[in-house]
Structures are given as C-alpha cells and as structure tokens.
Amino acid sequence: xxxxxxIANRRLLNLAGLLACAGMMGFxxxxxxxxxxDPCPLCVLQRIAVISMGAIFLVATVHGTDGAFxxxxxxxxxxxxxxxxxxxxxxxxxxxxxxxxxxxCGPGFDYLVDTLPLADALKKIFSxxxxxxxxxxxxxxxxxxxxxxxxxxxxxLFGIWANARRAPRRW
Length: 171
Prior knowledge:
This protein is mostly helical.
C-alpha cells in the first residue's frame, strides 16, 4: 500500500510539472500568435527545452516512477532543465550587452537548420544574433528569457525532487 501511494503521489507531482510546462508553452504561443512576437532562434531552443521537460513529465505520469525509472526521469528532467536554463541565461546575457557589442542580425532558425550541418547551425544559434538581443516584451522589468530562466530552474529542481525522493513512510 505504501509503495502504491508513493507512486500515485509521484504521478500527481509529475502531472503538476506537465501542466506547468503546458502553461509555459501556452503563454509562449499566445505571445507569438496573438501579440505577434515571433520567437528568435534562442527562444525556439528554450521552447524545445520546455517541451522536452513536459514530455518527460508526461511519460513519468503515465508510466509511473518506481525503482530505477525514478532516477532516469529525475536525470532527464534535470538535463532538459539545465539545457533550457543555459540557453535562457545566454539569451539574458545577450540582452544586457552594450549596443556596440551586440552581434549583427543573422538568418532565422529554420534557415540555419535547413542549410547548415547541425553542429554549425547550433554554433551560429548559440552565438546569438541582433534579434536575440531585442527585448520586445517584459513584465516587471524582466524579459521573457529572464522569466523562462526563473521558471525552468525551479521546475527542473521540482522534477528531480518529485522523482528521486524516497517513498514517504507511514507510521
């Protein structure tokens, strides 16, 4: 009974993580399709990280996390979160560069991925471009990449905790 309760709790916690990721993506799509702010290449990579975390939360919710799988899900959520946090931190850094240090604008994400080998495309994407340094939207003085960073780090830590923790003991 105790193990079944712990697994059910993990499933609920993973469902909460999935819903948080879905909410983040829902807001990103609202900003893109209703407010008409197109995502830059670094924004696309942040979306990929959030979607990856959501997919892992989904699989962990459906599959249940028991035994070694709880460590696998915790590690995968941590990796996806670290990737998203790294890209978001780089994006925030680009947005705070002085105007004369901002890289020139380059081609879009689709063009880079379609025309260059993947390693070269990723190198260009991570170097950022002028469009990545623009702050088109902000809330409380923080840009969207800053909010992604603020959301992804605790969400990844939550996912690691939810899956790696021991089953609660019943007295």
